Amino acid sequence: MKKILIVNANYYNDITKGLVSSSIKFFKTEKYRIEIMNVPGVFEIPIAIRKNIKKFDAFIALGCVIKGKTPHFDLICKSTFEAILKLSINFNKPIGNGVITAFNLKQAKERCGLTKSKKPNKGLEASRAILSILKNGTKKI
Question: pTM for this structure?
Answer without folding.
Answer: 0.93
